[in-house]
Amino acid sequence: MKFMKLGTKADTFYTEQATRTLISEIAADLVIQINDITYLLHKFPLLPKCGLLQRLCYDSSDSESVSLELHDIPGGEEAFELCAKFCYGIAINISAHNFVSALCAAKFLRMNDSIEKGNFVGKLESFFNSCILEGWKDSIATLQTTATLPEWSENLGIVRKCIDSIIEKILTPPPQVKWSYTYTRPGYTKKQHHSVPKDWWTEDVSDLDIDLFRCIIMAIRSTYVLPPQLIGEALHVYACRWLPGITKLKSSGSSVSQTEESKEKNRKILETIVSMIPADRGSVSVGFLFRLLSISIHLGVSSVTKTELIRRASLQFEEATVSDLLYPSTSSSDQNYYDTELVQAVLETFLKLWKRMSPGAVDSSYFLRSIRNVGKLIDSYLQVVARDDNMQVSKFVSLAETVPSIAREDHDDLYQAINIYLKMHPELSKADKKRLCGILDCQRLSPEVRGHAVKNELLPLRTVVQLLYFEQDKGSKATSSHKLPKPHEILMGAKDRAATTRDTQSKHSLGPAKDEFNGEEIRERDQQKTKRSDGKLALNLEKKMVIRGDIAETQSEKGRVVRDESSSSGKVNMDPKKMIRRARSKSEHGVKK
């Protein structure tokens, strides 16, 4: 940064208790009180350069000591001392950090060229125009210090000139940027990158107060020179610079002082950032929107801001990754680590927009891909939150059920999420297990996943029976494709067998040995068909268990059927659990085939 050195004399000011004076053989005749500091000075070097002091000391004689109070001088005692040292010819350094206070104090004391040629105000204004406004970081630093004296800076035109200088440099094409700037992105080194990045200005601008930052961003947007993504990147950098992280928010939530002092400031920053996000889709990432949304819940921002964030996040929801959704809950009443309600709110808004737009869409395949991506995203998210020990079944099921059927091509990922939840929550009640597994559609599982689920001891019995039924039903359909008889064909075949038996018996006394061979062949086919009907009977029993859902009634039903079967064809195993194990072994045997 540039600086201006004025004066050549050594600094002889010193402090004695609450008094500031300087080493001199001449007695002080000008006493100036500023706040709690008393200055013992001399009229002869100050009055010729300060129009205000001339007017205040007009009625006093040269030999008379004068006492003045200048409590309202801008910049306080530090700024006044710079002006006093300039009058004494003591060496001082003016830079972007003390320029604003020095100029405001000099203007207050009327140290203009009209009072004396080459006065302090003229030198400061010359330094401002030729050095500060020409530099990048000098303009930023000067604008930053105007926050201490906003009214004076605004009236003197310092704010407007600094903002114009900054905007002019931001709109400069990157190849023409010759000044120093701050750029600390991970993996970026200026030695390896000779070209200037497009967002070179974002970090330096993020040092400004939110109101000044807003003035610059809105002025840049009004020019329509920079793309919306670059504006969004500047907002992202500023948010990372000023807004606290979620973990820090949750850990400091118990601090009353922090809550009262910082919440209002952070709330203003967040609401201002949201109001500046360009309307163009993709101007900011969906991960950034979720971060703002999560912070907004803790800060208690206005409902308008929160609704806008949910809407913007839902528009880009299909672009999100699981890591974009993994924000801890900031609610004191919510024991869950992850904030699933936030994700569900965005999902519901996405579905509303999707249903509104998809019916009249020209490219329906795009909307199908869109909702399929979201469905896969939610199932992957469920697999992560299922590991939360405090995750309630109701919240897990509610989020899973919000996803429409069309959004899932299959239920493999959903099964994985349910399986993880069951492993992490072994104490789950039967009712909760039934509710959890009720969202699973066994028909939409792949053969590999269905084979794993059949052997999963964590699943409730009802779900296992469903899986076995659909597994065997699929096997029977595959067998029927090889022209095996259907149930009604078996019934017709029984009638044919009865007629054939009568013909065989009538021909037995007259016919040759060939008819006897044909009779043996028919009996073998009858036995095979009887075995198939037995397998069909077991399948029907399991189907009854699925429909009724009552294990006790199912066992009695099986016992009744077994007794009927036993009276006609011999002994049958009456234990339903053994029947399920036998069906499982058959299912595994079928899968291996």
From TrEMBL:
Record's keyword terms, sorted: Ubl conjugation pathway
PANTHER family (UniProt xref): OS12G0117600 PROTEIN
NPH3 domain boundaries: 199-474
Region (Disordered), start-end ranges: 476-536, 550-593
Compositional bias of kind Basic and acidic residues: 486-506, 513-536, 550-566
Similarity annotation: Belongs to the NPH3 family.
Keyword Transcription: no
Protein name per its UniProtKB record: NPH3 domain-containing protein
InterPro entries listed in its UniProt record: NPH3/RPT2-like (IPR043454), NPH3_dom (IPR027356), SKP1/BTB/POZ_sf (IPR011333)
Pathway membership: Protein modification; protein ubiquitination
Superkingdom per UniProt: Eukaryota
Keyword Acetylation: no
Signal sequence interval, chain numbering: none
